[in-house]
Amino acid sequence: MSRTVIRGGLVVTAADELEADLLIEDGRVAALAARGSAEATGWTAGTVLDATGRYVVPGGVDAHTHMEMPFGGTRAADTFATGTAAAAWGGTTTVVDFAVQERGRALREGLDAWHAKAAGQCAVDYAFHMILADVREDVLREMRALTAEGVPSFKLFMAYPGVFYSDDGQILRAMQTAAENGATVMVHAENGIAIDVLAAQALAAGRRDPRHHGEVRRALLEAEATHRAIQLARVAGGPPLYVVHVSAREAVAEIARARDDGLPVFAETCPQYLFLTDEAMAAPGFEGAKYVCSTPLRSREHQDALWRGLRTDDLQVVSTDHCPFCFAGQKELGRGDFTRIPNGLPGVEHRMDLLHQAVVEGRIGRRRWIELACAAPARMFGLYGRKGTLAPGADADVVVYDPAATHTLSAATHHMNVDYSAYEGRRVTGRVVTVLSRGEPVVLDRRFVGRAGHGRFVPRGSCQYTA
Questions:
Q1: For residue range 226-240, what is the model confidence (pLDDT) as tens digits?
Q2: Average pLDDT, the chain
Q3: Of 393, 396, 382, 409, which is closest to residue 440 (Cα–Cα)?
Q4: Which residue of 15, 214, 346, 421 sits 20 to 30 Å from the alpha carbon of 328, by its own alpha carbon?
Q5: For the segment 167-214, what is each residue's pLDDT rounded down to a tens digit?
Q6: CB under 8 Å to 313, separation ≥6 — which residues?
Q7: For helices 137-148 and 168-181, what crossing angle results, to 10°?
Q8: In a 3-state reduction of DSSP, which class is residue 404?
Q9: What is the pLDDT averaged over residues 99-108?
């Protein structure tokens, strides 16, 4: 039996803060005891980690990543090997990535392709959502099978006509199937048909720079699609609906209204919308391309609404939508035409630190930090109890975190496989020191000691907020 004791820290979960020692046995949390009482309870350990002056928190759960994601004639720069190692450096020990169905092909083919990409490569545990790009009768039958084997969440796009887009009828049919089988429907809520009209008009008028990406993806078109998705879910029988990467205050209002009506509607936002604004896309030259993502970065008043939504629980989760494209050779594909800039930002390494910075600034409390980054995404996607907490029986995914350490975010020091940082030069307080995944060190005293292949695929259950 392998044993590790983490002593001297402040254990912080979504529910509690307590000065306690943590006992790990064979990759799981075995017990917690009041600080200094481990010897009195007879604990012995092969390994002792000193967490004096530090937090001991659950490993983060990032419920929205895109490793090796194909988009716009290229693919995301992080592989499962590089991306999960970067996640570990930032205190995230579980990622839920998106397997992609190709048009005309089966869901099973897409899922098998993503299993092949991830198998033997991941430094931390992983799970999958399934992107539906082609809703057909045989695909609806496949949804039932995938749900039963631990992939019970399906993403539909109201944007990107001709690529991932589904019309209202297809979305309704997928939602009906999800409602029958206990699955969760995720939506990228933007009115893609209207956005394409505005984009074509902008290009025709000579408005081709990166900043116009945000201008055509209007906040009202995000809100309209969010409203429509909520109503379609109601008509379909009320499967859990999860709106991804919310960026607009009007969309937050639609979600809050639905939740006030008692509907099973949930949503995430991302660090880029909380810490960056649309001013970044207006950077000189082509620099703004680094910040092109969808939904787009928005102005300060939208940012303020997102923080309020996190405090009131109208937004439950902060994920990254990590989809990195290098500036050189990838973002540059859109020079002279903002519609050709690959959409996506790097961020899987910085989520825990940026949210802790929000704790330092008084925007959220410590337990809310852990709720947003660990517990809520685990509950939302059927992982809680095993992931997202430090209760006895949970996987020993543990982060020793120094709340006083300061460091500067930079492409020169990050571990993501991308040639720029969206947060270049930002000073933050708080830093990961040690990371355990199922009791095994991945980062130890700021040294990477993990290995590709340690991470396992984790089958998931249904949404635990509605079960």
A1: 999 999 999 999 999
A2: 96
A3: 396
A4: 214
A5: 999 999 999 999 999 999 999 999 999 999 999 999 999 999 999 999
A6: none
A7: 30
A8: strand
A9: 96
- Per the CB < 8 A criterion, the answer to whether 242 and 255 are in contact is no
Which residue shows structure tokens 């950077």? 283
Query: Checking phi first, is residue 187 left (phi over 0); if not, alpha (psi -120 to 50) or beta?
Result: beta
Q: Assign domain 59-380 to its CATH architecture.
A: Alpha-Beta Barrel (3.20)
70 SS3 class: strand
How do beta strands 55-58 and 28-34 pair?
Answer: unpaired
The CB density around residue 113, as the number of other CB atoms within 10 Å, is 16
Q: Where are the domains of the chain?
A: 59-380
Give the model's pLDDT for residue 72. 80
pLDDT band at 73 (very low <50, low <70, confident <90, very high): confident
- CB neighbours of 88 closer than 8 A, spacing ≥ 6? 123, 124, 435, 437, 442, 443, 448, 450
Question: What is the pLDDT confidence band of residue 221, given thresholds at 50, 70 and 90?
Answer: very high
Q: Read out DSSP for 6-67? A: EES-EEE-SS-EEEEEEEEETTEEEEEEETT-TTTTT---SEEEE-TTSEEEEPEEEEEE-T
Query: Among residues 391, 371, 378, which one has the least CA distance to residue 14?
Result: 371
Q: What is the mean pLDDT of residues 357-386?
A: 98
Largest alpha-carbon pair distance within the chain? 76
Task: Kindly report the backbone phi and psi dihedral angles of residue 244, in degrees, each rounded to the nearest multiple of 5, phi listed first.
Answer: -85, 160
Query: In whole angstroms, what is the distance from residue 75 CA to residue 290 CA?
Result: 15
Beta strands at 125-131 and 92-100: parallel, antiparallel or unpaired: parallel
208 burial level (CB within 10 Å; 0-12, 13-18, 19+): middle
pTM equals: 0.97
What is the three-class DSSP state of 313? coil
- What pLDDT digit, counting tens, does each position of 388-431 carry? 999 999 999 999 999 999 999 999 999 999 999 999 999 999 99
